[in-house]
UniProtKB/TrEMBL annotation:
The keyword Ribosomal protein does not apply. Gene3D superfamilies: Phosphoenolpyruvate-binding domains, PK beta-barrel domain-like, Pyruvate kinase, C-terminal domain. Pathway: Carbohydrate degradation; glycolysis; pyruvate from D-glyceraldehyde 3-phosphate: step 5/5. It holds the Pfam family PK_C. GO terms for molecular function: ATP binding; kinase activity; magnesium ion binding; potassium ion binding; pyruvate kinase activity. This is Pyruvate kinase. The keyword Nucleotide-binding applies. Residues 395-515 form the Pyruvate kinase C-terminal domain. Belongs to the pyruvate kinase family. Its EC number is 2.7.1.40.
Length: 527
């Protein structure tokens, strides 16, 4: 049974902060998305990442070819099989990303207060005073005084490998800039960001479409992270493209807000997307530093009220090279949870970082601690007020299930669902206990073959805060014609007991359809 949560608004006994945290089957209600790459692609390391709490694996196609990512994905599947931990797959598109092209891969030293020319001629060699870029329209997009940032791919902000430039002159297709800080650019891949400037390139590029229609289709991706989403039309275009690719019509689209264009059209984008990724790395360049927190809080609140997952990036950058986060980073993770984030994305920290497993573990522990002091009561009242009256039937059932679970201090909420929508709505109201989503497969046909649905819906729960999926035996119907059919509930309860999240004499709230009616019931377990 749940104990009463601490609240930050109430006095906390300071000595209680030093008490060790109790271990639990679920490391945290907040989910962790890990980017897989050179330092995190072996079966052994991926297995440890899953054990540490990673529930979504992100494959970023800004670098690496499909064969490389396919090999990593096969290792992920082997790790899932050995650990018996479910994990979803997210494909992150390149989008209209501007890059510096350094074919020699030799380090490039840039000195403050000297000039450097950005040219679209990619045949030229990158040097200290000439940098080829992959966009011919840069000279038309910028003007004297504009700010340009160049950073290592998935730059952490703490390196001496990032440089600020100020546009000094535009000459034909070339852009001459003043270097504002000394830096060394090692390696071949550097991203280029122009502050608050419209880049006339499609959001879903031809390269993205090719990757999605081959690698994405082959691997039935659960999520598409749509980089540089700037308008609602970007999401509609991507959904139309996915709808023509068989099973990918079920793939959820997460709009990645990376610049002021996306921020300006946020409300329309949120209506179209299945979830939002707050890309604080690029957005932190486009926005003044003092405005970043304001966007985060406002955007997460809007996502929470809409019942759509909000995902935050760039939280523990320094763990790319260090075993512990800074004090500011630890606080940042906690604040993301207290703001209402569903998930945290780890980028460079797991892709090329030295401590991918430790990073996931520490972020999970910080999330779990923050969740203990999350003011669920205040949030619940806000969500109910925002939903308004009359509530939809499903929304009313979901909020009632959460209210009942909190009042009786239930250990878990068990929700039977076929589409996953009912379980996501319950999770929207942020119960203090886990929601076990029992996804019932459904038999469908396209008149050529019969298939079971349910796997997509189960995996797509893995990015929603507090929601833990369990794919049921397809022989059990989601909508029971008899209230006495308790066999599937027994399986779910046994599953919870086996993992120690349900104990004797605990109370459990169950949300289920019986015939045409939705039922919320409270069960008190016996010995």
């Amino acid at each position: 049974m749940q104990s009463s949560p601490l609240l930050l608004e109430e006095p906390i006994r300071m000595s209680s902060i030093l008490e060790p945290s109790k271990p639990s089957f679920f490391p945290a209600m907040t989910k962790i998305v890990g980017t897989l790459g050179p330092k995190s692609r072996s079966v052994e390391v991926i297995s440890r990442c899953l054990e540490a709490g990673m529930s979504v694996a992100r494959f970023d196609f800004s670098w690496g070819d499909p064969e490389y990512h396919q090999e990593t994905l096969e290792n992920l599947r082997a790790a899932i099989k050995s650990t018996k931990k479910l994990c979803a797959v997210m494909l992150d598109t390149v989008g209209p990303e501007l890059q510096v092209v350094n074919k020699t891969e030799h380090p490039i030293s840039l000195e403050a207060d000297t000039l450097v020319v950005l040219t679209p001629d990619q045949n030229k060699e990158a040097t200290s005073n000439l940098l080829p870029v992959n966009f011919s329209g840069l000279s038309k997009a910028v003007k004297k005084g504009d700010t340009i940032f160049i950073g290592q791919y998935l730059f952490t902000g703490s390196e001496t490998t990032s440089v600020w430039l100020e546009v000094d002159e535009v000459d034909g297709e070339d852009v001459t800039c003043v270097i504002k800080n000394s830096a060394t650019l090692p390696g071949s891949l550097y991203t280029l960001n122009v502050s608050q400037i419209h880049i006339d390139l499609p959001t879903l590029t031809d390269k993205d479409k090719e990757v999605i229609s081959t690698w994405g289709v082959q691997n039935n991706i659960d999520f598409l992270s749509l980089s540089y989403t700037r308008h609602a039309e970007d999401v509609r275009h991507a959904r139309e493209f996915l709808s023509k690719l068989g099973d990918l019509k079920q793939t959820q689209i997460f709009a990645k807000i990376e610049n002021t264009e996306g921020l300006t059209h946020f409300d329309e984008i949120l209506r179209e997307a299945d979830g939002i990724i707050l890309s604080r790395g690029n957005l932190g360049i486009d926005l003044p530093p003092e405005k970043v927190f304001l966007f985060q809080k406002a955007a997460i609140y809007k996502c929470n009220m809409a019942g759509k997952p909000a995902v935050v990036t760039r939280v523990v950058d320094t763990m790319t090279d260090n075993l512990r986060p800074t004090r500011a980073e630890a606080t940042d993770v906690a604040n993301a949870v207290l703001d209402g984030s569903d998930a945290i994305v780890l980028g460079a920290e797991t892709l090329r970082g030295l401590y991918p497993v430790e990073t996931i573990s520490i972020v999970g522990k910080i999330c779990a601690e923050a969740e203990k002091v999350y003011n669920q009561d205040l949030y619940f009242k806000k969500a109910v007020k925002y939903a308004g009256e009359p509530m939809s039937h499903l929304e009313s059932i979901a909020s009632s299930a959460v209210r009942a679970a909190v009042k009786v201090k239930a250990s878990v909420i068990i929700c039977f669902t076929s589409s996953g929508r009912a379980a996501r709505l319950i999770a929207k109201y942020r119960p203090t206990m886990p929601v076990i989503s029992v996804v019932i497969p459904q038999l469908k046909t396209n008149q050529l073959r019969w298939t079971f649905t349910g796997a997509f819906e189960a995996r797509q729960s893995l990015i929603v805060r507090g929601l833990f999926p369990n794919l049921a035996d397809p022989r059990h119907p989601a909508e029971s014609t008899s209230a006495t059919n308790e066999s599937i509930l027994k399986v779910a309860l046994d599953h919870g007991k086996a993992f120690g999240i349900i104990k004797s004499h605990d109370r459990v709230v169950v949300c289920q359809k019986v015939g045409d009616s939705s039922v919320v019931k409270i069960i008190e377990l016996e010995e």
